[in-house]
Amino acid sequence: MTVVRRPIGVFDSGVGGLTVVRALRARLPGEDVVYLGDTARVPYGSKSPRTVERYSLACQAFLLARGVKLVLIACNTASANALPALREASPVPVVGAVDPGAASALAATRDGHIAVIGTLGTVRSGAYERALAGRPGVKVTALACPLFVPLAEEGWTDGSDEVARAVARRYLTELFERDRDIDTIVLGCTHYPLLRDVISATARELAGRDVAIVDSATAMAEAAAEALGTGPNGRKHPGQLACYATDISRLDEIAPRFLGEPITSFELVDL
Amino acid sequence: MTVVRRPIGVFDSGVGGLTVVRALRARLPGEDVVYLGDTARVPYGSKSPRTVERYSLACQAFLLARGVKLVLIACNTASANALPALREASPVPVVGAVDPGAASALAATRDGHIAVIGTLGTVRSGAYERALAGRPGVKVTALACPLFVPLAEEGWTDGSDEVARAVARRYLTELFERDRDIDTIVLGCTHYPLLRDVISATARELAGRDVAIVDSATAMAEAAAEALGTGPNGRKHPGQLACYATDISRLDEIAPRFLGEPITSFELVDL
What is the CATH topology of the domain spanning B98-215? Predict the structure, then answer.
């Protein structure tokens, strides 16, 4: 009997989703992964729900054509705006970023004061508010932080970087003005984990106490394992990673920062 | 005899090109203008020449189908990477941003030390260096400044804004480290004129003297007038402005900042 190994598909608007691939490979090391970054049309975060949905469906169709057994939407903006359409169009399970991120926040919060930072598209969608609605005692404050993405791509992420600190102070000041009791911040964008240190330090400074910082990558990997109904599998060899992108500019430079391992190569595709 | 009024076509990766429309309407107030912002695929500045060329050709085809008599490429990245392909594909004259910008810099420089700041795509193309090559005594230093675009879109453009100053200081320090005698800076991206004050003040601070700041919008309007062979025309009524975009997110909020007048509406188009 021939067992066909089907890969897990992951897509993102760009390279940020490689932070999810990293968590996925740690949780399910034997699985093959196909990654697609829509780098020709990145970012999704500033665009309308209609455009985000259209692009996301094209990304998912590309992955489905490669026989994936599960689709992970690494991009928060796509998860927040296109999940229903993606699920309707997919014969295999589709896991988004919002529900796992919301679950992580609930596990981390002490007093229920949760902040979500992300792109304009994620914040405008109200997806995190919906995911956390009906939880007694939970208050959600959401804020778009557009400068965090280019900061992460410039590599100005050090906790003592003057620009990074000035940008973080500007956004987090507005956040704490809206709710001074925030105790947990969800990094609702795949780029933001690279800025975790400066966000955490600035939040502590402004709040006068520790603030939990959670991202959805680990929770997404867990959700993927659940959806597949598998624990860690017994394969001795690490699964293969195939990376595709719709544009190749700067991938070699930027992608390894997100993946945390060298990337052999991206294959260029037109969608 | 019926005289058909044909419009001037202007395209850009997004809304920044409205700074060029503004200059064009000041120079040729009677002309009709059709503007297309490819806001669904913005930015071009971080993408490869191949992708920029493909998108630019689609934008130009849209304008040509509307019967324009001249195409202005407001986007520096598209001008720097796609001008030959666009000219080859157009039956009407095509004016880019680079040559007018270079001419403005030559007119402004005292000692020939010219800096060009723009997107990664513009800087990597070497287009400004080529436009200024062979000018005796001219030295060109080019630097990509990716954070200036989201800064302008956030509206953090005030000369005393802490974040804007920190970002400008970071980039301009690198520029003056490469050539401490820079006396002229070309704003080689349609977003940057909104940051003119903070760029100018920071350059003066770092150089210890005034530094000329030039942009290509006015020079492009002049080049358009030359290409049409017209001086100011005698029409009493201002020309019409029709604006199209491939995505509508945030246009109402951002576009007027660039155009300097209210915009009645954008029409959404698929390319």
Answer: Rossmann fold (3.40.50)
